[in-house]
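Late entry, pyridoxal-5'-phosphate complex.
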Amino acid sequence: MKQPGRQSPLSLDAATFRSLGHRLVDQLADFLESLPERPVTHDALPSAVRAALDLEGPLPEQGTAPGPLLESTAQLLFDHSLFNAHPRFFGYITAPPAPIGILGDFLAAAVNPNVGAWILSPAATEIESQTVRWIAELIGYAVDCGGLMVSGGNMANLVCFWAARAARADWNIREAGVTAAGGRRLRAYCSAETHTWIQKAADLAGLGTSSIRWVPTRADLGMDVGALRRAIETDVAAGDLPFLVIGTAGSVSTGAVDPLREIGAICKEHGAWFHVDGAYGGFAAASPDAPPDLRGLGDADSVAVDPHKWLYAPLEAGCALVRDPERLRAAFSYHPPYYHFEERATNYVDYGPQNSRGFRALKVWLALRHVGAAGYRRMISEDMRLSRALAEAVRRTPELECVTQDLSITTFRYVPADLRASVGDEAVERHLDALNRELLDRLQRGGEAFVSNAVIRGRYVLRACIVNFHTSLEDVEAVPAIAVRLGRTVDAQLRPADQTNLSR
Ligand SMILES: Cc1ncc(COP(=O)(O)O)c(C=O)c1O
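Prediction complete; structure with ligand written out below:
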């Protein structure tokens, strides 16, 4: 007969676990089905959310029955969250979770492998390796590359930055540090549209943010490669070391793609590491509709992609790819005496900054198997098509101005009919900035649809990014009418204050 094991406060017997799990899955299924009928978000103050969730109390000394605890917590989350799985969520670059990914995270937590070392996670390590290869294949990158799952785009870019730093410094920078070059500075180049991860990377890697050369952009917001070349030549003449050039495959503000092939060629000439930030747009390379420039990511020494964006993985899932796997080991591995890990197997602890690691790959791997490359090509292409449809709907609306459309991002702003002829006038532009800022605030709090903002050539605009497999044509076509209705109200409220400035 099976002896009863140790009974500890956290233990749940199998029957209780089963019934709690079934109840939770029932609640989740109902909730996910009801999402389109709910507002995208609720207009609540932080203090109201804290009060509703009873989050001001002290640490409880005694426990709570798990059934009511789980049930009420789920309900509170449903009532006080922003839902990026809502079909009208177009903010930032945050995707709805693939349902199979939700279940995958549940399964991963139950098996709980530590994917730092092969011996602690035989199946999980091998699944992560295959996930990395499949991701590379999907975007047209070398399938024999090295790589690993990380928490998101920032970390994926950081890992590649560290790999570049160790590879291109011509001294042992890991041991001697950045100051050992005797005043000679490592320089990194990127376009002015690059995401803020680059500042964190330069800072955390000890180079300082002043090591970054911000290269101007062309009219289409892609990097001006002539300016890149001149910046590198100036630094070389000054005795500095241009070690890294970053091309962006889909900028955070507008989805602009840098001329990756040309950047790659300049890197070759100067011996610089070529990194592509594909956190947002990298997966669009899988689509036949992708801009041709995107294909240039295949030339890169490293690429960062973000499965929690355009592979619709539940947060968190980023992925760093490095052409030569040894470059990751050369940047990260140490061999302390207290680890006895098989050298011939992949021990991910040697390939990145983390020690203990969760099984992030499972949700991505399951989704890739669930829908295949064809499924992803279709969803990504549809997202881009919907974004173009939104741009068309905006262009058809006289009170809206379409500013950009790239990949799946459309930017636009509200321009009152009587000010249309005066666009460009400084006082009018100031009014439009204030108007669209307030309009965004109301849109975001209103719950009908959720967009975010961008600042393009100094002007404040609304920004809809579609990485959302729940969104339909009807959803995107609803956006212009909402923006115009709110825009008119805000304009009427702001106009008395701005009127004197507007009348010339
Ligand atoms: C181009 C780009 N790079 C990096 C990031 C950072 O990604 P994450 O938020 O997953 O860290 C983003 C996020 O939007 C991005 O758009």
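Residues 373-502 form a domain with the Aspartate Aminotransferase, domain 1 fold (CATH 3.90.1150.170). Will revisit in the morning.
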